[in-house]
Design a protein that fits this description.
It contains 12 helices and 14 strands. With 340 residues, it is of the alpha/beta class. Strand 13 and strand 14 (286-289) form a beta hairpin. The chain is globular, with a radius of gyration of 20 Å. The relative contact order is 0.11. The model has no long low-confidence stretch (mean pLDDT 94).
Amino acid sequence: MNFCICGGGNLGHVTAGYLSSKEGFDVNILTRHPERWSGSLEITLPDGKSVIGKLGKVTSDPASVIPQADIAIICLPGMYIRHELETIKPYLNKETSVGAIVSSTGFFFQAHDIIPQQPVFGFQRVPFISRITEYGHKANLLGFKDSLKVVIENNKEVEHLRSTLEQMFDTPVSLLDNFYEVSLSNSNPLLHTARLYTMWKDYKPGTFYPRQTFFYEEWTVEAAQLYIDMDNEFQHLLRKLGVKEGSIPPVLEYYESHDAESLCRKIQSITAFKGIKSPMIQTPEGWIPDINSRYFTEDFGYGLKFIYDLASKNGIESPCINKVYSWGNAIQALANGKSN
């Protein structure tokens, strides 16, 4: 099969390298920086072993890689999805399945608008945790999921695609009923934003921190409780939208916890999260939040935003979500105003 990976971030690297290391999978890359890539990618797996993926064409020209693709996978932040869909649209075959490795940042909302008849699919959660170690050359696959859930639309061969996705990611894949189940997530859009708020709700320019904290290993009970409270509001929204009960499990169920304390301990202990630092920038005076990191631009602007908008539209009382979303917008506006 022929694949085109659209995007060269952490997930793009690991997805491209892992797939191209498998027999019978031809992988091309569509990226803004083709000159920075080698012809192969070394992917270090969770057990410390490595696989080498041999890439096909690495290019910034969609006309040279999209027409022959059986599957095009978008591995890009939410802010770039619309532009990427518009870029590849003229070159898509009607049978090409266009998918998103991350669906909770607006993929389906924008795909319905730009390529409404195209076969599309999207995952509820990312297949693995990914980190680049050398751009265009090496990356780490830090952890697989036990299972994956996906929504497939406009496809006459749903079971064939579902089975193909299992082969691609070596993980059991099950089908969900509608795009809300992958477009709305209580993972990063709630997980990250709850943590950011509790760390920096009192931040203002001129405030400095003595060190860069660990994002997960130093998780707090306060952040866990806010995460639970936001998720309770989120679950209310899902019921209002008619999303099937349990298709997006409550966070306490997902993390096999029963209260804020046990959830905090669980998040602190997850192996794949070890060593991940909080998004911060070092200055001569100390550390400050990196307001331009994807934790802010992605998880507020293209994650929590859709939840906030739908809750408002459907009359769902969501004071915790509103508080965190409003704070995220305010701190980004403050940073942008300062930079201007």
